[in-house]
Fold this sequence. Notes:
Elements: H1 14-17, H2 19-22, H3 28-35, E1 39-43, E2 48-50, E3 59-64, E4 66-73, E5 76-84, E6 103-106, E7 110-115, H4 117-126, H5 128-147, E8 153-157, H6 162-173, E9 178-182, H7 189-196, E10 205-207, E11 213-215, H8 219-226, E12 237-243, H9 247-258, E13 263-266, H10 293-306, E14 310-312, E15 317-321, E16 328-332, E17 336-345, E18 349-351, E19 367-368, H11 373-378, E20 383-387, H12 391-400, E21 406-410, H13 422-430, E22 434-437, E23 440-446, E24 453-458, E25 463-467, E26 472-474, E27 478-480, H14 505-510, E28 529-531, H15 543-570
Parallel strand pairs: 8-9, 12-13, 12-17, 13-14, 17-28, 19-26, 20-21, 20-26, 21-22
Antiparallel strand pairs: 1-7, 2-6, 3-7, 4-5, 4-6, 8-10, 10-11, 15-16, 16-17, 18-27, 23-24, 24-25
Helix pairs in contact: 4-5, 9-10, 9-15, 12-13
Amino acid sequence: MTTPGDPTGRAPSIRESRRDQIFPTLTERQLAILTAYGERRRYPAGAVVFEEGQRHIPMFVVLSGALEIVRRTASGEEVVVTDTAGMFTGEVGQLSGRGAIAGGRAREDSEVVVIDEAAVRRIVVGEAELSELIMRAFILRRVALIEDPAGGATVVGSRHSNETLLLRHFLTRNAQPHTYLDVDSDAGTAEMLQRFGVDTEELPVLICSDGRLLRKPSLRQVADCLGLGPERLDGRTYDVAVVGAGPAGLATAVYAASEGLHVLVLDGKAPGGQAGTTSRIENYFGFPTGISGQALAGRGFVQAEKFGAEVAIPREGVRMECAGNGAVAIHIDGGERITARTVVVATGARYRKPALANLERFEGRGIYYAASFMEAQLCSQQEVIVVGGGNSAGQAAVFLAPYAKQVHVLVRGAGLAASMSSYLMQRIEGAANITLHTESEIVALEGEQDLEQVRWRHRPSETMHDCAVRAVFLFLGANPNTAWIDGCLALDAAGFVKTGAAISAAELEAAHWPLARPPYPLETSRVGIFAVGDVRSGSVKRVAAAVGEGSSAVQTIHAVLAESRSRETSRPAV
């Protein structure tokens, strides 16, 4: 379809189609409100106002003159926009003090209002009209820069590398603008690596926006280089520590922070958990046309930060100290330790791995645990296999069908009705290139470096099928992510966290439960420690249920904190 005014037929970019919302001009009344939150400052022409990668930058509201917002690209410097009188700087990363994804300088002598990070948060919470305008602009600015891959960090890697895939997933799911160059297909990449003195064994590499180059970086190194991660957390104390930034954890953070509690959220990868990798959720209330898991998680992440929650990514809880019934200590990867008056365990579950020879060797080289646009591009017009009978498997099969030549869905059971939503079953039945294979399982994976062939067995007939398949997507149920709890909490036979009435009297006695009351419905065998979402024993494995549990937990968090204050005030003076 030809776009009006564009004879090439190219669809307009976000920056073109929503420019007035991305770069709005404030009214005199709105300017007056913002001026009260900051201080006036003058910059001479050419002065650097803030630099790309700098953290904790204020918002600048232009009163006179003009500020150029610029970013580095492979071909030089690009002017993103020129902010004139009535316009303002900033994007969503500013709410959490992340590294700026662009810099700013005065194009001419300019007067601005400088509004610091804390004041910006007060504005987006307390000024309803301005909150909507600023938040929309902040979000759309980030989206526009992600849409245009010319700037930001550069990833150089191989489509045959699991480490490259994990790095790209991390940057994409954390909404970090970046460019990807593939050594197997992008011209000039070999010359670039030679210039930097990088061997192919050192891939992937990340070239940060400031020019630093990281070889085979850890996610922590990537975050620190780009200003994504938090500053040091060691020794801090919070009202609520939420471990896990899936839908349940983010919902807890939104409601707790909006009600004035000091909240920290820890996650080792990205917002959204397993739901964040889902291509499209169509049965979530309020989204009749569906929403991607990443978009839903991104909105929850921004909402939590808007209300003042600290979302620390990538920071993973590795051990919990829960001796006694006071504040709980959580050890974080990297050697840091924080304490919290209450803790919400929202670490979810991880897909099971089948006992197959060569499985780990082919991970990222034909074996995948998520079906995103990156994986879809790798298997274009090829036969693929999706293993699993739940909603995640169904969503993956439906998503991959337009890209793949043929999608084979393998399930161990006799059908899908017991484990998959009806609408997904209908999509699978209606897709000409999706074939369902019941009572079937993979028995062998073959290939030299990458996956090349799969053998599966139809169990009732013992018939073997060999298929030239280079991509297998595994969605085989889930194991609880509870190893880090280290014996602190009562678990069920499958390792999920017990809560409320599911905890036996013997388990409460073993945990030295100190109160006359029983645990609240989402409370564990330790006072003030809650479990929500997929990690909780007996939970409904749906996004809506996880969000409901996360928000419901906040009411009882308040009750526990009130109990703690009451006990402290009732203690006799020494």
